[in-house]
Predict the structure.
Amino acid sequence: MSGNIAQTAEQVCGAFGDDPARLMDIIRGVQQRLGHVPDAAIDAVARRVGRARVDVESVVSFYAFFSKEPKGRIVIRLCDDVIDRMFGYDAVRAAFEEELGITLGETTPDGRFTLERTACIGMCDQAPAAMINDTIVTWLSTDKARRIVSELREHMTPERLVKRVGGGNNGHPLIRAMVHNSIRRPGPLIFSEINRGEAIRKALSMSPAEVIRAIKTARLRGRGGAGFPTGLKWEFTRSASGDRKFVMCNADEGEPGTFKDRVLLTERADRVFAGMTIAGYAVGACEGVMYLRGEYAYLLRYLEDVLEKRRADGLLGRGVMGRDGFDFDIRIQLGAGAYVCGEETALLSSCEGMRGDPKNRPPFPAQKGYLGCPTVVNNVETLCCVTKILEVGPATFNMYGTSRSAGTKLLSISGDCDSPGVYEIPLGTPLGEVLEMCGGTRAKAVQVGGPSGRLVGRDGFDRLICFDDLATGGALIVFGPDRDILEIVSRYMAFFVDESCGYCTPCRVGNVLIKRGVDAIIAGRAEPRDLEQLEDLCRTVKSTSRCGLGQSSPNPLVTALESFRPEIEARLRADPNGYRRSFDLSRAVRPTEQLVGRKSVHT
Amino acid sequence: MSTSAAKPRVATVSLAGCFGCHMSVLDIDERIFDLVDIIDFDRSPIVDFKDFTGRCAVGLVEGGCGNEENVEVLRSFRRNCDILISLGDCATMGGIPALRNLVPTEECLREAYLDGPSVHNPSGRLPNDIELPLLLDKVRPAHEVVRMDYFLPGCPPSADTIWAALTALLTDKPVQLPYELIKYD
């Protein structure tokens, strides 16, 4: 048995040239063929690729989609995000549990099904949703859940669950997903029609320095949320020393509430790949890698096909568009369910076949990135903007938006609004106007930029969506008047607790403590002093964590307090005797009471 | 206020601790004469008062809470003392007793009274005398049970640390502990 396992593992290693940097693909391959990655496989992989066993094992244990324990042939992963909870997650989960006869986290005794929960899978506008192996199912209900299970029992083929496909390329034979694009408001730039090849042709008619200047003139800033000037990033990479350079496309869209990159990859993949090619030309890179989140694996075959067609048409490969000396090709690296990999240095770690641990900066990726080489890391949407800038010129691009936030921005809008979906708006648009567009004007609060962004109450609805005011990677989650702000904060803290890589203590421990504190307030067992201490803790976690995750994870509470302090403080009460109200004596003695069969005289 | 209006009263207790912190209190040596000049001991193992006789200015709490009685006693300290001090690491963080927090209560009791290799317990029952306080599921540091005002770290805090903190509090001066008193390497 273990001989077979080792043999399988070695075959998979061989298919990836025993390259330790391809560990993600190797382990994914083993997981696919064996259903899990047992010790014998870890041993074999470690031997073949020349890594320490613990390196391989830590990759297996780090990513949510890899497992040392055997899983069912079909793994049902329920998306457990705030949005899903708002739209019936609990009932759907109960239906799945009842129908399968197992609880969340378990595998059926016949080894056919595993039921799990997972963080946001980028389907917030069609929640509740789930991944069934790589197939996405959307708009779940209890009826649908029961139907899915009984159907799967018959044919065991998740793909066959897709009866009707979503619009646009979701119906493409290589995608065939029930996912909907819901492009509610296509704008003039990012969603405009593509003239395939035009942007690259124009780029090649300029010098690389001129391309960078064009991007700078357009005042393009990174669309992932941080807003770093793209032209400057490219210039750093171009001037960094090294013969081998890389262009990375960050398609690890993991911020809960964000799904615009999913739509871009479905509908404008050519524009993304063109952007990578142009970046390659500008910085002097021959190799591009797109890091595609594991949740979007259903797009993989389609994207590979787009790449293949671009190669056939001379838009990729040796001598791009006949230009001697400019070779550029792209490979797609699939992730495996880890939010932190959207952080650019964690993304690099993951691409290099390691745990998705963030790296220390400096050196920045522009100096020392993928495999130690100078690397540009850009967001999917940023790269689309690059292509558009080359197509229409910087002046047309920065006609839209404001002076410091040029162009348009995609928003992924979900939650309590009439028309959730993707909106392309000029940067500088007031939040209130966006709420009018999507039919969410009754909102009590909006989470701008996902949990790592900020919760904005009605007092902030006149603020502008742009880099200098409400900066956002694109997530906009609308909360109606009946939603409990602290419940939202607690869910988001649960998300960060799950996704912390565990490397540094403030983030690993601090987020757990913040969540506990928030839950105590919700339970009505917190005192004014507790809130003071919580705020202090938030400051510590933000200022002492190693990467962006911990530096922003307290944001849900910190920003909720900015708009909702009176509402939150009204739930605090001190005990007149100075007893801690968070301590519940009767609960604390309950296990012993049951063991010895006697009631406490003190409760 | 207290019975002898002139002198503030001080109470001390050892909860889930080892009495090491109380030993450290006694380690102030002959300064105990200076101490009793300015205070009266109230409820404390040092004078063997079993209950409070009046309102106390300061309560020194050694140990965290491991059982229901600890909780009751700590709560009575909170009711009867103006200032409560967590004395030592067990009161401050749970300390050694809190190591059992890693083990479920049932496993803990079974190992101690039924399954442990050196256990002789033919009855096969857990001790259950009415006099025995029930264990809490986890050992809590003092401040998780009542509001605590000051924390003196150390295992135990040195006599000098205790002396400095107490005299400052009792003479209405700010408690400022020099680095040497709270460094442990």
